[in-house]
Amino acid sequence: MQRAMWISRTALLLVLGLAGCGGGAAPEPEVAEAPAEEPGNAGGALADALTFHASFDNGLDADRAGGDSRLYTAPSYDEQDQAEPGLGNPAVMLADGGGRFGHALRFTERNQHAIFYRAEGNIGYTPEGWSGTVSFWLSLDPATDLEPGFCDPIQITDAAYNDAAIWVDFTAENPRQFRLGVFGDLDVWNPDALGPNDNPAFTDRLTVVDEPPFAGDRWTHVAITYASLGQAGGAATLYLDGERVPGGADDIDEPFTWDAELGAIRLGVNYVGLFDELALFDRPLTDDEVRALHALEGGVAALSTD
What we know:
- This protein is mainly β.
- The protein has 5 helices and 18 strands.
- The protein is globular and about 50 Å long.
């Protein structure tokens, strides 16, 4: 992605203990203990909202899907119509026993292929009032594992990072920031076609973490909640290890228009590291629910989906 670094408008206030493994063989994972809670019916409520789950423990196909469960690879996103099921990049593989729970996807060098799940039926997109949550785990040392350039562990869009998209990224150079971006139709929020360096409508929308808590021997839980996209008052929030990152966007007013057949849950754009436990929910989870999700023993598979 052709973007540049900016000064943060918000910083992460909590530095949390994390756990997991990096690009090599997986040691015994260490994960921050979640605060003691009385979750009540949180598990059932999370299960009811779950629309998609890829644990990678039973292969590449999603364990739960409302649409196509298969993982696809194409030469690039400009050639998404050439996608075939499976992993078509030899630098990306299943890491047996290397995940936060069970297996994971391992990206051993910068991934420039299109690796994605189809969004249609899996993420509950609607052009007005689109709401939901994205959850996954990462293990990497951004300073040493990532190659120069921007890196997006996940992008959800039918077009590009700046056009009807939800994403998180690591900035291009060390020390790397971790950012959340949520942008609707490009021609509406950026009518003058300004580059990101010159456009406060871009930089002011970002949630930025100056010292992100990632490491090669740890796992970090990432969650994104979003509400009412495609209409006035749309909002998005970033969570790391179950805790809300200060800031967030609450002025996402532009339309959010997709060609549903092209909508994709893009994984590992320019990424190097481990990726595990992708889960999508059809509503924005509460702070307590995100904490409960982070604390699940056994991961999302532990939720009852009866």
